[in-house]
Amino acid sequence: MFHWLEKHPFFFAVGVFVVFSWAGLIMILPTFTKASQPLVGTVPYTTLELAGRHIYVANNCSGCHSQLIRPFKNETDRYGDYAKSGEFAYDRPFLWGSKRTGPDLMRVGNYRTTDWHENHMKDPAGIVPGSIMPAYRWMFTKLADLDTAYAEQLTVQAAFAVPYNKPLPAKDGGTNMVKLADTLEGAKASALAEARTVAADMKDQDVKDLIAQGEVPEIVALIAYLNRLK
Amino acid sequence: MENRPLEYDYTVAKLWMISAIVLGIVGMLIGVILAWQLAFPGVNLLLGEGLAEYTSFGRLRPLHTDAVIYGFTVSGIMATWYYVGQRVLKVSMAESKFLMVTAKIQFWLYAIGVVLIVVSLLFGLSQGKEYAEFIWPIDIAIVIIWVLWGVQIFGLIGIRREKTIYISIWYYIASFLAVSALYIFNNMAIPTYFASGGIGSIFHSVSMYAGTNDALVQWWFGHNAVGFVLTVPIIAMIYYFLPKESGQAIYSYKLSLLAFWGLVFTYVWAGGHHLIFATTPDWMQTMGSVFSVILILPSWGSAINMLLTMKGEWNQVATNPLIKFMVLASTFYMFSTLEGPIQAIKSVNALAHFTEWIVGHVHDGALGWVVFMIIAAMLHMAPRVYGREIYSKSLLNTQFWLQTLGVTLYFTSMWIAGITQGMMWRAHDEFGNLAYSFIDSVIALEPFYIIRAVGGTIYLIGMFIWAYNMYKTATAGRRVEANELQNTSPMAS
Prior knowledge:
The complex is a heterodimer.
Chain A: H1 2-7, H2 9-33, H3 47-58, H4 73-79, H5 114-122, H6 124-127, H7 146-160, E1 168-169, E2 175-176, H8 184-199, H9 205-212, H10 218-228
Antiparallel strand pairs in A: 1-2
Helix pairs in contact in A: 3-7, 3-10, 5-10, 8-10
Chain B: H1 11-39, H2 52-55, H3 57-89, H4 97-122, H5 136-158, H6 167-186, E1 189-191, H7 192-195, E2 205-207, H8 211-230, H9 232-246, H10 253-267, H11 282-294, H12 296-309, H13 315-319, H14 321-344, H15 346-352, H16 356-386, H17 393-426, H18 438-444, H19 446-476
Antiparallel strand pairs in B: 1-2
C-alpha cells in the first residue's frame, strides 16, 4: 500500500491529511459543541476595561505573566482560588500565557491597588527591589484607543451574543449589568466617567491633566483592566 | 541530448537562502537582546527613554519568535524545497514558466510580508496569541504565500520524471497540509472595523473562540506549528542531505515509513500537554501526556535512522564539518524529543510549566536541531548552487564549536533556572506558609540569565561566521567542476 501511495502523490496527500486530522476532530469538536459557559459573577468587559486589555495585548504582558492559577496549594496560597473554565468565557483571545517571568495576574485585582500599579508601572524596581520588569512610562501620556474597544464590544455582542445590557447573576445572589452605549460618543462618555474614578486614586500630573481634558491615557485603561482581574 | 544530466534552476532557491541568512541573524540578534534584557533590565532602554515602547521586552519578544520561526526556518524550508524538490523529482524549475513565475511571486510577497510584520509587531498590533500574533490582513497574505508553496509542490510533482516520491517529499507535503489547516483555524477572527460599521482600528480583530476553547485551538495550533514547521520539514532536509553528503544510503526504508506515518498520526494529540492543569477537560490533558510519550517512537525512529545511516562511516564526522553539523542535529533531535515527553508527564509538568526549563527545551530543539540542520543543508547547497567550493573549512569548524558551546550554555543554564524557579514557587516552610515570595525566584535566576545571554551571544557570533562564509563562498570560492560535487562538499581549508 505504501509503495502504491508513494507513486500516487494525490492519494498520498489525502492519506496524510486524514491521518493528521482525526486527533484534531476528536479533541476539539466535542468541547466546541458546548460553548464555554460563563461562571456566576463573570461579566463582559466594559469599554475602558477592554481598551486596557488591548494595551495588555499590545505590550505582550502575557509574554511574562500568566493568567491561570493551577489547582495546587502553592498557587492558591500565592495567587488565590484556582481557575475555572467559565471565568474565561468573555476572553477573546484567552491570555493564560505560557511563562512566568513575573507572577500570575489572574486575580491581581484582589491584592493590588490603583496606587500600587501607578507607581509600579513607572518604576517596577523601585516598588519591588530586584524586579527585572521594564518601566512603562509612555502609558502615562499615550492615549487609549476607546474606539476600537467599543467596536469590539459591538462585534462580540452581535456575533457571539455577549450579554451587554442584560441582568446577569452575581455572586451575592443579586444581578449585575454591564451597559453598552448605543453610540460611540455614549461609550466614550461612560468610559471617561469610569476612568475618572480610577484616576481619582492616581497622583501623576499628566494623567490628571489628560483626564481633566476629557482624554483617557493608556495607564488608566490598563489599571481599570488589572483591577477587574479578580 | 537525452542522456545529458538535467540542469536544475536555483534562481528561487538562492533568494530564499539569502532570506534565511538575513532573517536568521535578525531573529537571533533580537533573541540575544531579549536575553540581555532579562539579565540587565536597563537594556530595555537600549534606544533611549523616547523609544522605550518599541524596545521593551514584551514588544520585541514576538519579533524574535516570529523571525526565527516564520523568517529563518520558513526561508530555510523554502530554500531547501526549491533545491531538493527539483532533484528528487528529476525535473527542472526552468521547464515550467508557470512554476517559475509563481515561485518568484511567492518570494516577493513574502519579502513584503516580512516588512509589514516587523512594522506591525513593533507598533503593538497583535492578536495576542503566541506565534499567531499577526493581524488579520497579514494572516491573509500568509495564507496566499503558503498556498503558492502548495502550488509549487504539487505543480512540480505533476511534471516529475521520477514516479516514486522520495521520503523528503512526504515530509514537505505533510508540512504543507498540516500548517495550512492549523494556521487557518487558529486565526479565525472577525475584523471589528467591518463588523461595527467602521469604528476604531481597521487592523483589529476578535477571535472566533473564547477562553478555554480559544486556548484549545491555540495549542492545537501552537504545538503542531512546532511539529510541522520546526520538525517535519527539517526531517525532510536530513533525509536528503545526510545521504547525499555522506554517500551513504538511508539505513532503513521501513523505519522511515514507521517514523513518518507514526509522526503524522501522533503529533496532533500531543498539543494538550501545553494545557495540563489548565481548565481544559481532564481526559484531553491525559491524552496530551500519553501521546507525547508515544511520540518518542516516531521521533527516535527518524533520528536513529539517520545515525545508523552513518554506520561504518563515522570517520566522516571527524573529517567533514557538514556531517558533524548533521549528526549533532540528529542527536539534539533525539535529546529534545526525549526531554519534551518528560516535561509532558503530569507530575513533571506541574514543576516545569511556566518556568525557564520550557524555554531551555525549545532552544535545545531549535538551536541544536533546526538551526544546525538548516545550516548544514545550505552549506551543502552552496557549492552546487554557486558552482564554487565552500570558502573556509576552518571557519566552519570554528562556527561549529562556538555554536555547540553556545547552545550548551543556553540549555544547561535554563534547566537549572527552570527547576530552581519551580522548586522555589512550590516550597513551603515548616508552618505550611510559602517559603519564598515571587521576587526571590526572580533574583535567584540572575546568574543563569547572564550565562544564557552569553551562550546566546556566542551562538549569534557563529551565525555571523556562517553568513560571512556563505557570502565568500558565493562570491570568492574556487570554481568547481561537476565531478567534485558527487558527495562530500568541496571546501577550502
